[in-house]
């Protein structure tokens, strides 16, 4: 497939890029700053900010992954970015896969309390989590875009192991066999590429956790 990855050189984006290339997909990294040294020889770049992407830029992709993360103090940009992506993808056949947040996952069976609503949730992370949650709500209301939103577990580990194993949930925060809510970025990337290659969560948010 031809896969565009917004934020391909960021933390999560780098794992997604590596996993997609490993599986033989054509990957175009969409970044504001093209790195001077490129580790992956078969990776090409589109040097553009997310907010100036056009329908012409993305219409030939099979999949567009957004690993966009708003700067500190500008967290409301998550909503703006989502609105822009929906607008340029409207009425195309391109699938949108979004690297979501864990803060908007629910911690109760009635699905009334988000993780960011709890006393234990750090105040510093609330602006990002709340605005990512608003962006998800906006995405749910869209009618003309094929989308999937993948939330990680509470602890999203840059240096975690690539085990190739994960378990899947829907709207609730999950725990592994040790009572921890965590997933490595490497295993998260595996989960997202599995979804791209074998769609099971179209027009849905879901989550993954270590086993």
What does this structure look like?
This protein is an alpha/beta fold and 211 residues long. It has one domain (2-209): NAD(P)-binding Rossmann-like Domain (Rossmann fold, 3-Layer(aba) Sandwich), CATH 3.40.50. The protein is 27% helix and 21% strand. The chain has helices at residues 11-22, 55-58, 77-89, 126-141, 185-197, and strands at 2-6, 26-31, 44-47, 63-66, 95-99, 146-151, 155-157, 167-169, 182-184, 204-209. The strands form two sheets. Strands 3-2-1-4-5-6-10-8 form an eight-stranded mixed sheet, sandwiched between helices. The chain has a two-stranded parallel sheet with strand order 7-9. Helix 4 links the parallel strand 5 and strand 6. The protein is globular. The mean pLDDT is 95. It comes from Lapidilactobacillus mulanensis. Pfam families: NAD_binding_10. InterPro entries: NAD(P)-bd_dom, NAD(P)-bd_dom_sf, Polyketide_Oxido-like. Residues 7-195 form the NAD(P)-binding domain. This is NAD(P)-dependent oxidoreductase.
CATH architecture name: 3-Layer(aba) Sandwich
Q: What is the total tally of β strands?
A: 10
Strand content is 15-25%
Largest sheet: 8 strands, mixed
Helix-strand category: alpha/beta
CATH topology: Rossmann fold
The CATH superfamily bears the name NAD(P)-binding Rossmann-like Domain
- Terminal CA distance reads 29 Å
Give the strand order, joined by hyphens, for the main sheet. Answer: 3-2-1-4-5-6-10-8
Query: Averaging pLDDT over every residue, what do you get?
Result: 95
Give the uncertain stretches in residue-range form: none
Radius of gyration: 16 Å
Q: Could you estimate the helical fraction of the residues in percent?
A: 25-40%
Order of helices and strands: EHEEHEHEHEEEEHE
The CATH class, by name, is Alpha Beta
**How many domains comprise the coordinates?**
1
- Please work out how many helical segments DSSP would assign: 5
Shape: globular
Protein name: NAD(P)-dependent oxidoreductase
Organism: Lapidilactobacillus mulanensis
Domain NAD(P)-binding: 7-195
Pfam families: NAD_binding_10
